Amino acid sequence: MRLIVADDYDGMSKLAADIVIAAVQERPASSILVATGNTPMGLYDLLATRQASGECDFSGVRAVQLDEYLGIGPEDPRSLFGWMRRSFVVPLAIPDAQVMRLRSDAADPDAACQEFAEAIRETGGIDIAILGLGPNGHLGFNEPPSAADAHTRVITLTPESAASSASYWGAGEDVPQQAMTVGMDILLEARLTIVVISGEHKRHILQQTLEGPVSSDLPASWLRTAENVVFIADRAAAGELALAEDATTQAG
Ligand code: F6R
Q1: Is it true that the peptide bond before 135 is cis, omega within 30 degrees of 0?
Q2: Mean pLDDT score of the chain, rounded to an integer?
Q3: At what angle do helices 41-52 and 9-26 cross, to 10 degrees?
Q4: pTM greater than 0.90
Q5: If you measure from the C-alpha of residue 29 to the centroid of ligand 1, how many angstroms do you get, rounded to a whole number?
């Protein structure tokens, strides 16, 4: 596990973009698990800018959805699939045939979860997981408690995650109380995992993730048991961790 501390949000996004681009240059047909949320948006913008300048080419990658609210179709304004399309798939010109959608609007959501997990495995697993860190330590919607072998499944959101989701849409939209998420089992098998963390409000949970007990109560802490994981935090999120480690040095 590595921790890289950037001066600010833009620096965090750039460091993450450098790593993702290098990985895609090495393996142009990478399967990429794509988090939504606020934190990776600067990273995705940079990837699109750098693709436009000819530095990289994401047209061969497979974009795999990480999570979705239950019963929400792709056209719903709250859809995380819609958000992934707007921020990642379309700007990077990834063909629709190379996009894997979590069918949270399926008649049998449990079966849809199983099928999705099987499809990920059949296509060779995840090469690059791009993740954010939830305010309660969730990864995707693997809410606490989530064991390291938790499967792709339907979960009930914690009040904290529902509040965090509500902030994405402003007033007037109902926050779904349930969601689907790719499981911890698949996340922990990714060949490369990049977690982006920004802002003082993430400082405590990041510190607990990196230094507290490894436990189902803080699902992100399981990443410390996985191979090839890079946490990229801005200084506001890293706090004391930033003081202990000089900028852009590695920890752990
Ligand atoms: C979103 C997702 C969530 C977010 C996390 C952090 O697809 O999987 O786990 O990554 O809640 O969200 P932000 O970046 O908005 O703080």
Answers
A1: no
A2: 94
A3: 50
A4: yes
A5: 25
